Amino acid sequence: MAELAEKSEIEQTEEKNIENLVQFLSFTLGDEEYGVDILRVQEIRSWEPVSRIPNVPSYEKGVVNLRGAIVPIVDLRERFGLGHMEYTALTVVVVLQMQTEQGQDRVMGVVVDSVSDVVDVDKKTIQESPNFGTKVSTEFINGLASVNERMVMLLDVDKLLKLDVLEDEDEN
Amino acid sequence: MSIDMAQFHQVFFEESFEGLDIMETGLLNLDMGDVDAEDINTIFRAAHSIKGGSGTFGFTAVSDFTHVMETLLDEMRDGRRQVTQVAVDVLLGSVDCLKEMLTAIQDEQEVDVASVNEYKKALEVELNGEQANEATTTVEAVVEPTQLINSAGSGWSIAFSPHADLLKTGNDPVRMFRELAELGQLTSVVDFQGVPDFYDLDPEDCHLSWNLEIVGDIPSTDVDDIFDWVEDSCDLAIQALKQQNFPSVENETETTLVETNKQAVVEDTNPTANPIVDKPKSTKKEPSKPAAKGSSSIRVDTGKIDTLINMVGELVITQSMLSLVGEHFELNKLDQLKNGLSQLERHTRELQESVMNIRMLPISFVFSRFPRLVHDLSTKLDKKIELVMVGENTEVDKTVVELLSDPLVHLVRNSLDHGIEMPADRIAAGKPEMGTITLEAYHRGGNIVIEVRDDGKGLNKDVLKAKAIEKGLIDADANLTDKQAYELIFMAGFSTAEKLTDVSGRGVGMDVVRRNIQSLGGNIEIISELGKGSTIAIHLPLTLAILDGQSIAVGDERFIIPLGAIIESINIKESMVNRVAGKGETFRLRDEYLPIVRMHEIFNVKNAQATKLTEGLVVVVDGQGMRCGLFIDDLLGQQQVVIKSLEANYRKVEGVSGATILGDGSVALILDIPGLVRLSNQ
Fold it and tell me: Taking CB atoms and an 8 Å limit, are A51 and B668 in contact across chains?
């Protein structure tokens, strides 16, 4: 009996831990490592040529046909000002889901250098992103987590995919 | 056994809203002089099913309210009550009230009890007010439960006359009377008059009726409960023994209510200039879920679905045939393969057509709200107006139907307010006192045309011009054709109404109307004759989902131009080209100078093959009356393309109206001609 009780206690603590764990998909951009909430990841694809959209910022690469849906592709390197890298067959596109303020689901692909791992992060250990002033834009970063001594920047998917900022007001 | 009733709520709401529409139409169609019992019956049935449904789902507020309406209707049905305009207006008000209640419940919001009670009062006043005058006829009143509690203590008088088939439904009056007797002291008077001659007597029918009086302190619900089961198979009137003195008719309250309602309509239908920007505001205010409100479901004729299923069947057969051919393919089977492919093509096209057909709704979905609108507004404006609707069964794509209703409301309101004159003016002008507004829908080519026609005073070109000059919209010496003068009313900030009413005249209307129509890929035109009336015609594509397109090449990129926008494609010579102010280019096409829009420049296409005008092609396109020449590399081919929204996952892009997927799986952008012209002007 005592053994059993002990066992269930262990299970319980484990459960507790699981409750606090959040899984992130980590990927690299240059030397930096980023993570997104794994529940937001719809799929991971390899890079394929896009149809360019005219007169948009250069990090908005264009749109692709994703099983009948028109999905925009954003280059995260360029979005974060990390410079451009040639796309190869190994370049990865992570397809992410988000909800707009109007409650519609949106899908968008982001180009990253490579996908590394799925990491478990204890919610409690996530640090707030430090403030670098205006020099470095941290608006997309939700927090920092350390995984195996490496720092992973956790991205806010909703903010990341919000491209409406540039939407013209249409009125004039 | 527990069933989650919530899953049926949506169905209930849909049915109830349909029922309300039926009631509204029915009420508006009632001819005061000669009331058809069947019409009232239709209205009654609709009310009854709403009552039943709401009772089942526990929306007692709705069922109580409907019950009062039903009583009034029941009396009208039986001819015990004259159908008066006042009564109909009260009922119409109640329909609105029910609509509000149901909407509130659907959105999981609080029902506005105060306004409901006002309507209820108006209904009861209508019910009981009559009663005083008709003391000789069978008097009845259904009294609201709260008021009953006051009057309880005196007792009830019940006129109970079962229909002949009451006994067959398994109900026994005797049992009911016993139950009644348990509640209080019961006296009953039997009326034998209905009993036929012995030889004609059917022993299974009930021929008796009763006048019951029960004395005691009894809540109305207890009495109601007893008759609950037989309500449908008898004529029942329950009345408190001691009459309540109801407050006198508060006409004032009623009219104010109706006005507030109208105000709401006016605001509703005033399409905001930028719905995308406006939406988040409203969602923030109401964190409930209005998104689910829009009717995302659609009722489809089963015939259409059967056709669809047949086609899918054929498609499956074709597919299996093709896979058989493909399994052991030899060259001599090439013919078979070709046959199969052409069959496949045919089936796909048919399938596509019938799927599109499912999305088609009769335009009456939009038209049906207009009788009410015209009825209300004409009363308010003291005008006599008849609304004629032609071609209500013309079918249009669901999206078009939804987006069309606001602009149409606007146009009809304009016709009512500005178009049709006051009755006195009409007589003076030698026209019939009653003005006519005609709503007509018909197909022409691949388009649907919707006309709003009135026989009012027509548009006065000079007034329009003067107004436009006054507002600084055009130059004082501008020379305008009739058409151009009429177009002035589509300019933002233009309103000719001398005084602003809440009906129209704020000048935010017509430009929005035109923009809405244009965003649907349609156009709008005005034909008018001074003194005779005006016609506003809206031309819209039948469907928004598929379009005939011309694919073009610019550099490595492919674009689609809507085929309807293309006038012609030409090779131009250097001699045809002129430069304006050293920058803009125009070319001469049969005595007309058209601007040239270089696609590779405004879309920043690299490695375009043709950079000299003589090397490429110029496609002359027409976008909302603006013509221009698009300079491109080459024309590729015509094909039907399925329009996909760019905005679903991305955002609006200037000069692009959507995207489509080409045969090779790549994405091509569909050009928005008016947008391109705007872009090139910047």
Answer: yes
Q: Write down the CATH number for the domain with range B546-681.
A: 2.30.30.40
Tokens of B388: 């004629």
Alpha-carbon gap: B677 to the closest alpha carbon of chain A (Å): 14
Q: Average pLDDT of B298-317? A: 85
Name the closest residue on chain B to residue A162, using Cα atoms: B650
Contacts of A96 in chain B (CB under 8 A): none
CB contact under 8 A, B644 and A103: no
Question: B238 Cβ partners below 8 Å, 6+ apart?
Answer: B140, B142, B156, B157, B158, B220, B223, B224, B227
CATH class of B362-541: alpha beta
User: Which of the listed CATH numbers 1.10.1760, 1.10.443, 3.30.70, 2.60.40 matches domain B144-243?
Assistant: 3.30.70
Confidence of residue B467 (pLDDT cuts 50, 70, 90): confident
Closest CA to A157 of A18, A24, A64: A24
- Domain residue spans of chain A: 22-162
Secondary structure of residue B74 in the 3-state scheme: helix
What would the mean pLDDT of B476-484 be, rounded to a whole number?
76
Which is higher by pLDDT, B508 or B54?
Answer: B54
Question: Which residues of chain A neighbour B666 with C-beta distances below 8 Å?
Answer: 49, 51, 65
Fold entry, domain B1-128 = Four Helix Bundle (Hemerythrin (Met), subunit A) (1.20.120)
The CATH code that applies to domain A22-162 is 2.40.50.180
Question: Which residues of A are less than 8 Å from B273 in CB distance?
Answer: 170-171
Q: DSSP string spanning B541-595?
A: ES-SSEEEEEEEEETTEEEEEEGGGEEEEE---GGGEEEETTTEEEEEETTEEEE
Domain boundaries, chain B: 1-128, 144-243, 302-356, 362-541, 546-681
Is any Cβ of chain B less than 8 angstroms from the Cβ of A106? yes
- Would the pLDDT of B603 be above 80? yes
pLDDT above 50 for B499 = no
Whether B130 contacts B138, CB under 8 Å: no
